[in-house]
From TrEMBL:
This is Flagellar biosynthetic protein FlhB. It comes from the Bacteria. InterPro entries: T3SS_substrate_exporter, T3SS_substrate_exporter_C. Gene3D superfamilies: secretion proteins EscU. It holds the Pfam family Bac_export_2. SUPFAM superfamilies: EscU C-terminal domain-like. One of its GO terms (biological process) is protein secretion. Keywords: Cell projection, Cilium, Flagellum. One of its GO terms (cellular component) is plasma membrane.
Amino acid sequence: MSEQDKKRNSSLKKAVALKYDPAQNDAPVLAAKGTGYLAERILDLAREHEIPVQEDAALVEVLSKLDLDRQIPPELYNLVAEILSFIYRADRDAGGTLR
């Protein structure tokens, strides 16, 4: 890979999506991940469905290394707890009720 390709890839937007259903899983599951166009699509879908988006490049970097459809490992629980807290606050502020 050329240096120019490396720079281009490193500047591409990254996104991940988590899903969490306590009735099915003990921890959130990585539902989607992508860079560039796919990352933009993940973010567009989140906005279209009014799903709160939290921007945290370091966390995305860590989560993007995980396999899809796998539960978040225990060593990442604290980081993911911050996301869930953000989502619950955003939902409450918007007058919603998460189940």
